[in-house]
Amino acid sequence: MRKAIPALLAGSAGLCFAGTAQAAPQTTAGTVINNTASVTYTVNGTAQSSTSTTATFVVDRKVNFTVVTDQSGMTQVNLGQQNAVTTFKVTNLTNDAQDFLLDPDQQSISLGILPGTDNFDMLNLKAYVDSNGNGVYDAGVDTATYIDELAPDASVAVFLVGNVPTTPTAQLAFDSLHVIVAAGGATATKGTALIATDLNLANADNTVDIVFADDDSDGTLYLGDIARNGQGRAYSGYEIGTHNVALTVTKSARIVSDGVNLLFPKALPGATVEYCLLVNNATLLTAATGVNLSDVVPVKTTYVPGSISIGLPGVPGIACVLSGSAEDDDADDAAESDGFTASFDGSTKTVAAHLDSVNGASSIAVAFKVTIN
């Protein structure tokens, strides 16, 4: 769900501020520290010694962590793209292992934090933890939705994954990873959010107090995080780099046979003509999806049943489709699996073809035949 954000003063914050890791390992929360004093003295020339009572306390939990954006710039995406990823990193600076709850959301940040203006929402935005530590989102592998038992001074990548809508005007979508520290101690069990000990209370020597020591991760009070609240936030986004491609359709006709001439058939009544629709996408790296073609069979001709074929283009003037598949004439395409479907509507005399995708710098040919009346 999108969360409205007040406008910011330009330059008021960067993506987030990372804390500085401790130079030496911190003493683990819950560690018992005992101390006993000794005394020596002399009575009538005789040396004596004694020990004090033992002073005992346990080390409290100093909760600290950082959340940062772990990528350069926006994630470049295309309209309709599935499983688009922005990457973040969570580092545990607490003196014990901790769980962390992950809350992906979308922000209307138009000034100060990220450049540009947010104008669309990602669909089905989810947060997943990098399970194998390779820094790359692996669908079906990275499935954990919370960070489990992150060791002190350890870091882990978190991916926000969503689907890009097909809205033609879409340009920028800003997202945010909101992280909440949670109780650790039980592997494969999601801990509940930690509650800090009241700092107005005196230290309890035999109790592990919880003290939040985290920074204001987004650098300003108005963006949903403040210092020492056990929460962190970082920001990134998705940018539609290409809204259109150089898609062209070239149509040609070839006399296949006329019943009279074998080598050079002519356009005689009764001759068979092959129409060829060559769909070319000249834009590199960007596919055109959901391509639909429609062609009305011209008057004075009759469609040849079962003559539609779609596939790899052949040599112009010799063969429209070099290799591909023959398509049936009805609109029932439940059995189709090659990404191509076609039909002929006898009432409107229309040939229709659907191509799931035409990849960048590639072509697909669609052919059908008619006879001259």
Automatic annotation (TrEMBL):
<protein>
    <recommendedName>
        <fullName>DUF11 domain-containing protein</fullName>
    </recommendedName>
</protein>
<feature type="signal peptide">
    <location>
        <begin position="1"/>
        <end position="23"/>
    </location>
</feature>
<keyword id="KW-0732">Signal</keyword>
<dbReference type="InterPro" id="IPR047589">
    <property type="entry name" value="DUF11_rpt"/>
</dbReference>
